[in-house]
User: Which sequence fits this backbone?
């Protein structure tokens, strides 16, 4: 499990203790269905947590049993599942009522807009090239931003952080440069084997290879240090990159429709390939999805949906 997962499970234990104190209920392990229902009610009603968070805490409670050598109970029986479904439905209603800002997919046109905004921004020349290199690579490789950027500015774990030595170059048969980005612990992989993602040169204005080399060749990169670092030497984090994207694109975005962020690069690939008629298998391969999760990101244009609708109509005659 990742460090963040263990951290969440630790928080679940803390929340269970708080629930015990505030509800005056014995919440010691092993936990039974009555305790589970009290815990869920407290999390949803008193703490105002969403269903997704509650589900994570329930998984944490199950893990606590395993850690202490106790046979874990059935956490989500039929009744619990119905209650969680109701909470999930309520979350959806609240989102719609509150004009929830969804994440927008990055498109080719928006990449051109982003490029111009980076050029005219007040960042240093080095950081402009850094931001653009990260943007083009994240878009071309459908990366989760945490796969290529450090989590923290102050410290990094070499076993998980993308280091300078983790990116190599080669030349293909057409004499074009290819970036090979080695992900040591990709989310979709359950094995210890790393995943290598190839990024290809296209010589266009959005070329990720050209952007990367324009940034990397400005100075020597220490092989055992995080690859993407700012001019002052501080690693560029996913959180900071997300803030940069929001700062640049928010003024040109209708927030009632949605917002752009670092995950928009990954969403953009699924949406773009789906819009061009690529198969589910192609989309899953491009984004390294091991499940049907990509379907949540495939946002087809209205014209594309209309065309599909006409085709279905013709088939029905």
Assistant:
């Amino acid at each position: 499990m990742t460090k963040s997962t263990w951290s969440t499970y630790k928080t679940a234990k803390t929340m269970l203790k708080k629930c015990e104190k505030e509800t005056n209920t014995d919440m010691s392990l092993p936990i039974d269905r009555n305790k589970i229902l009290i815990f869920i009610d407290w999390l949803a009603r008193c703490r105002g947590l969403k269903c997704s968070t509650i589900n994570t805490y329930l998984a944490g409670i199950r893990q606590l049993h395993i850690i202490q050598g106790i046979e874990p109970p059935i956490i989500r029986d039929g009744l619990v599942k119905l209650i969680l479904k109701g909470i999930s439905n309520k979350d959806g209603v609240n989102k719609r009522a509150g004009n929830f800002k969804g994440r927008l997919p990055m498109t080719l046109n928006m990449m051109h807009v982003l490029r111009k905004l980076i050029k005219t921004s007040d960042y240093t020349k080095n950081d402009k090239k850094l931001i653009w290199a990260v943007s083009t690579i994240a878009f071309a490789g459908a990366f989760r931003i945490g796969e290529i950027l450090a989590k923290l500015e102050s410290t990094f774990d070499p076993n998980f952080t993308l280091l300078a030595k983790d990116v190599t170059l080669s030349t293909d048969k057409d004499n074009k440069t290819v970036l090979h980005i080695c992900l040591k612990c990709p989310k979709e992989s359950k094995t210890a084997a790393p995943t290598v993602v190839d990024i290809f040169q296209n010589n266009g204005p959005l070329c990720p290879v050209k952007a990367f080399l324009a940034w990397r060749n400005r100075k020597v990169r220490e092989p055992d240090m995080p690859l993407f670092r700012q001019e002052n030497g501080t690693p560029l984090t996913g959180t900071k990159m997300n803030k940069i994207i929001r700062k640049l694109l928010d003024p040109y975005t209708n927030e009632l429709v949605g917002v752009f962020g670092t995950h928009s690069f990954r969403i953009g690939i699924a949406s773009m390939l789906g819009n061009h008629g690529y198969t589910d298998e192609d989309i899953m391969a491009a984004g390294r999805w091991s499940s049907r999760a990509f379907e949540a990101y495939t946002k087809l244009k209205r014209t594309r949906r209309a065309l599909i609708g006409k085709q279905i109509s013709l088939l029905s005659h």
Q: What stands out?
A: Residues 222 and 232 are 14 Å apart (CA to CA). Residues 3-97 form a domain with the DNA polymerase; domain 1 fold (CATH 1.10.150.130). Strands lie at 167-171, 177-183, 195-200.
